[in-house]
Amino acid sequence: MRWKGQRQSRNVEDRRGRAGRLASGGGKMSVLTIVIVVVISVITGKNPLTLLQMVGGSQEKTPQQNSAPVQHSAAEQELAAFATTILASTEDAWIAEFKRKGSKYPVPGMIIFDGNVQSACGINSESTGPFYCPGDHKLYLALGFFNQLKRMGAPGDFAQAYVIAHEVGHHIQNILGTEKKMRQMQRNDPRNKNKYLVLLELQADCYAGVWANLAQKQKNWLEDGDVEEGLKAAASIGDDTLQRNAGRQVNIESFTHGSSQQRVKWLRQGLRTGDLSQCNTFAN
User: Fold this and answer.
1) Which residues lie below 8 Å from residue 27, measured CB to CB, with a gap of 6+?
2) Whole-prediction pTM value?
3) CB burial class (10 A; 0-12, 13-18, 19+) of residue 171?
4) 36 — pLDDT class (breaks 50, 70, 90)
5) Residue-wise over 28-47: b if at least 16 C-beta within 10 A, else e?
6) What is the phi/psi pair of residue 6, to 5°?
7) Can you list the alpha helix ranges (DSSP code H) found in 190-246?
8) Half-sphere exposure of 264 (CA within 13 A, CB side)
9) Hey, how many other C-beta atoms are within 10 angstroms of the C-beta on 265?
């Protein structure tokens, strides 16, 4: 992808190096704190030692922020610039597309992080992979996932861009009300909860393909082999492929994102049509 020199999004917050660490050994309690705990124990009749342990435990969990400046390698800085550029391209593509359809596209934010991150959806670890939180309309991305993608046999710029565009696809589902409708389907039919989740994920794959189609028309930045990289990435992170690679038996009922074949099919559908209306996975 010829992404360098393209516009970068301003809707990005870099939280790398800001993850809180649990204090080792805990902090010391003041005399006033001990007196207050003793008074509470007299009033409530609770064991003062238990109350002191509770207070001490809460102090141990206080995040200790590292105030020293965080240094990132040139490779990490380039990945951050790449992610910021891809987010900007999704903004350009979807703002124009929504305007063409007579509506406004509210752009999402993106948080780049490492370690753990706090969102409106709770605390998540970078080991869970990139995610979108409907509660705060933000994408959360740990750049280390791109290295994991390479190890899974899906290297390349477009493979990485597809992952970001997929999470933006969830943002579109959120603002269009699709995500809310899917949750209602799950409540109405809990036995098929995973089935509806798979349909939501496959639609996000299709939306990622639509973005690629629209962005290519705007920027003409795809090179030979880019599309194949994206399709290979979709195949590499299919539930059946992940289960086989983990040495497990394929269990369709446990799928949450769809098979490799399904993911490739819907990404290709979006790439080919460039049309959101052709991504109705729930109708198939």
Assistant:
1) 59, 60, 62
2) 0.81
3) buried
4) low
5) eeeeeeeeebeeebeeeeee
6) -80, 165
7) 193-219, 226-236, 239-245
8) 15
9) 18
